[in-house]
Amino acid sequence: MEIKTNDYRVWAEGATIHYEGTMRLSGTEAYAPILDIMQNVLASKPETIVLDLTELEFLNSSGINLLAKFTIEVRKQSGVGLAVCGSTKIPWQSKSLPNLKKLYPAVVLEIS
Questions:
Q1: Are 47 and 77 spatial neighbours (Cβ–Cβ below 8 Å)?
Q2: Which domain holds residue 65?
Q3: pLDDT 10s digits, 94-109
Q4: Closest listed residue to residue 89, CA positions, set 62, 64, 55
Q5: What's the pTM value of the predicted model, to 2 decimals?
């Protein structure tokens, strides 16, 4: 499944969910199709879900909230791990992504 607009693209390949571009969607409802992709991957109960954010240049507070809620959902599932990949070249990622470890200490955070 893939969502592609002029501003951003989100798609899943196996247990890896890729995000790229600029996501400035307004509110939780606007992020619902993206959450559907994420929940479909979670429903397949992979050993580890990878959120690849290395190409996501901007994510607003509603999008960060989406990542937080999904992290909590993964935490509730036994046997499913979560890895988050980010880039030090994108300032918001270095500031916001470490907060996911506060919600779920087992998150593997790779910001390079």
A1: no
A2: 2-111
A3: 999 999 999 999 999 9
A4: 55
A5: 0.96
